[in-house]
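Many introductory courses stop at the sequence. We go one step further.
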Amino acid sequence: MSPHQMPLLLVRHAVAEDTHPLGDEARPLTAEGRAAFRTHARKLARLTPMVGIVTSPLVRAVQTAEILAEAFGLSRVEVHPALRPRARAPKRILRLARELGAGWVLVGHNPSLARAGCLALDMDELPDKLRKGAALALHPEGRGKHFSFAWLAAPGRYLQRAEDLHRA
């Protein structure tokens, strides 16, 4: 599959510890979150190949990205400040998505990631919640300025495809 046929994935970090002595940025994934996401990541890798992964610098996102890299057979994960949760993050995430395009996974946080997905799809809300560990697959259209919904996959839930939404 050529990169142009691949989707772009927006992935919310997996289930993390509620607190950490060093603060929010240091919160790691829970053991259960790791295990559940490892299974989910393998399912995602069976749905589509990917060419690269960029992540927020926060520990829980980096750990989620590393699990994805292992599942997709990718050798490295790049940290990018645009994925850090902060003011105007949705617009920064959308700009990064447009720059990278098809075949890339962007790992980040809510509500920024869900809002970036809404901006990319020109929707008020996504077809479903972007739960922890969920992947929103978008197809870049034209020169990557616009996106269409491909599917949404959350751990332990059914895959929601674009055609399923049209039937509902």
